[in-house]
């Protein structure tokens, strides 16, 4: 198992540069990070770098499977360095928090499609959407300044449910 980022790049035939190393460190330190946030982290570490250079480095690292690109609906692409398994993600609709979740059963049960139509499947992308525990807790604990939510009578259903919040980039 290679742990030195320079050695990892060399083993994949990628030229070792300060920018690529800084991008790897930014993603390793902040799983599910956006490209803009990677650029900020890299600038804080090594100084000036263009957003295009960050995208180029991310592209090379994703192409060589050193990083994984995740593109949730309605959200900017995110990047992570957990690439050695077929895991999935939980995303909070309210705050945008994204966390890893292992496959439901076995090592990779979702890689066996009912009808693969001749494809050689090597990855499945599953995203679970909902609200994280913090956001659920906030909605259940009204503050003193907030009016109490209206009570529902039997048969009213979800008439007082709030709007579906958009994912915010983190």
Explain how this protein is built.
The chain is flat, with a radius of gyration of 20 Å. With 170 residues, the protein is α+β, with helices and mostly antiparallel strands. It has two domains: 84 residues, Arc Repressor Mutant, subunit A (Orthogonal Bundle); 85 residues, Ferric-uptake regulator, C-terminal dimerisarion domain (Dna Ligase, domain 1), CATH 3.30.1490.190. A hairpin with a 5-residue loop joins strand 4 and strand 5. The protein is built from five helices and six strands. 16% of the residues are buried. Helix 3 crosses helix 4.
> So, CATH architecture of the largest domain?
2-Layer Sandwich
Helix content: 25-40%
CATH class of the largest domain: Alpha Beta
Number of helices: 5
**Which fold name is given in CATH as the topology of the largest domain?**
Dna Ligase, domain 1
Radius of gyration, in angstroms, nearest whole number: 20 Å
In the sheet with the most strands, the strands line up as: 1-3-2
How many extended strands?
A: 6
The helix/strand class is alpha+beta
Content of β-strand:
5-15%
Whole-number average pLDDT? 80
Helix and strand sequence: HHEHHEEEEEH
Count of discrete structural domains: 2
The dominant shape is: flat
**For the record, what is the CATH homologous superfamily label of the largest domain?**
Ferric-uptake regulator, C-terminal dimerisarion domain
What are the segments in which pLDDT stays under 50 over at least 5 consecutive residues? 144-170
Largest sheet: 3 strands, antiparallel
Instruction: Kindly report how far apart the N and C termini lie.
Output: 31 Å
């Amino acid at each position: 198992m290679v742990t030195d980022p320079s050695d990892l790049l060399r083993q994949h035939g990628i030229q070792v540069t300060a920018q690529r190393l800084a991008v790897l460190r930014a993603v390793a330190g902040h799983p599910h990070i956006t490209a803009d946030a990677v650029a900020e982290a890299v600038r804080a570490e090594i100084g000036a770098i263009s957003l295009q250079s960050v995208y180029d480095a991310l592209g090379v690292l994703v192409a060589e499977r050193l990083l994984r690109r995740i593109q949730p609906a309605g959200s900017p692409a995110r990047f992570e360095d957990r690439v050695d398994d077929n895991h999935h993600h939980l995303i909070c609709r309210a705050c945008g928090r994204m966390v890893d979740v292992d496959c439901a059963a076995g090592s990779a049960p979702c890689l066996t499609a009912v009808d693969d139509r001749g494809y050689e499947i090597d990855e499945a992308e599953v995203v679970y959407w909902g609200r994280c525990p913090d956001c659920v807790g906030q909605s259940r604990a009204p503050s003193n300044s907030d009016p109490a939510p209206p009570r529902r009578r039997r048969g009213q259903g979800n008439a007082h449910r709030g709007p579906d919040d958009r994912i915010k980039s983190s």
